[in-house]
Amino acid sequence: MALISQLFGDEIFDPFLSLINKCPVLNTPIDWKETPEAHVFIADLPGLNKEEVKVEFDDGRVLQISGERNVEKDDKNDKWHRVERCRGKFLRRFRLPENAKIDEVKASMENGVLTVSVPKQEGKKPERKVIQIEEN
């Protein structure tokens, strides 16, 4: 414990708290799955509502999910003992494949879980062309 005090001062060092402070809402882990019909993005955004989240396309086929968890208003008489919940902005970008129908994207949010569905276009199936072999 003496070494920890030397490195971090007299304040109590909590290794678990240092992991939490990596702030999951700021890093915003997002799942991306592809179904036969669409690309589906699922993001856990606890404590945020749809007004605090933005879904948009940038540079053609780049899906951008961003938002902000605002700091609560402080009363001058309040005394904080711990602040562990993350606050601040987040931004994630995903380059979508050519088959994404950007003009038909749907997004919904329920219980702090954002789901973005990007339908897929039917890809061109390769044509089969028979080449005649000539005799010399």
Automatic annotation (TrEMBL):
Location(s), subcellular: Cytoplasm
Name of the protein this chain belongs to: SHSP domain-containing protein
Subunit structure, interactors included: Forms oligomeric structures.
Pfam families: HSP20 (PF00011)
Keywords assigned by UniProt, alphabetized: Cytoplasm, Stress response
Taxonomy, superkingdom: Eukaryota
GO cellular component, as recorded: cytoplasm
Record has Endoplasmic reticulum as a keyword: no
Domain SHSP: 21-136
InterPro entries attached to this UniProt entry: A-crystallin/Hsp20_dom, HSP20-like_chaperone, Small_HSP
